Amino acid sequence: MPTYALQNVNTPEPVDGETRALVTDLHSRYGAYFDYGHLDAWVALFTEDGRLEFPLSEEERMVVTGRQELLAFGEQAAQIPGGSRLVSAHFTGLTLMSRVAPDRLVTFTPVAMVGGDRTRATAPGLDAVGAYIDDIVLVDGVWLFRSRVADLYGHGRLPDELVR
């Protein structure tokens, strides 16, 4: 049986520990801010022209671009018809990261989403198991999402920058 040594693998450009910690914090804040309704803080995690994309169905995708549209999307997503508040939780897995430029990273993060209606006594249920593919840029010393693309886990493919 062959064995593979890490040095024999054509690995992506490494990401230093400080950058990895800052990007992990960015991912954590994304979920916490959205889940707890801190939408102004959530929107500030994106560049001015930041983009969020996710599937609505097998054939249709939603694309939200710019901080104003992201804020409107967040406000709408937080409501369940009838006016009650959606309960959601983002649980992220370990992130693959690659530095593609001094001020730009590409990342892949598995995510499990649970959600429900805050007014019901039942526990939230699993909504989706997916993954985020992010284009993250350094703006004035802060890492921000330029683009966050969500999909069901196992759909699509890993970005070449992560597997080269």
Describe this structure in words.
The chain is 24% helix and 41% strand. The chain is α+β, with helices and mostly antiparallel strands and 164 residues long. It has a single domain, classed as Nuclear Transport Factor 2, Chain: A. Strands 1, 2, 3, 4, 5, 6 and 7 form a 7-stranded mixed beta sheet that branches.
Would you spell out the secondary-structure blueprint of this structure?
Blueprint: H1 17-35, H2 39-43, E1 46-55, E2 61-65, H3 67-77, E3 86-92, E4 96-101, E5 104-117, E6 125-139, E7 142-152, H4 160-163
Parallel strand pairs: 1-7
Antiparallel strand pairs: 1-2, 3-5, 4-5, 5-6, 6-7
Which ranges are low-confidence, i.e. pLDDT below 50, for 5 or more consecutive residues? 1-10
Kindly name the structural category. Answer: alpha+beta
Mean pLDDT figure: 84
Shape: globular
The CATH architecture assignment turns out to be Roll
End-to-end gap = 24 Å
Give the SSE string: HHEEHEEEEEH
Which CATH top level class fits? Alpha Beta
| Biggest sheet features | 7 strands, mixed
Q: Give the total of domains.
A: 1
Query: Which percent band covers the strand fraction?
Result: 35-45%
Number of helices: 4
Helix content: 10-25%
Keywords:
Nuclear Transport Factor 2, Chain: A, 7-stranded mixed β-sheet, disordered N terminus, alpha+beta, 164 residues
Explain briefly what this protein structure is.
This protein is an alpha+beta fold.
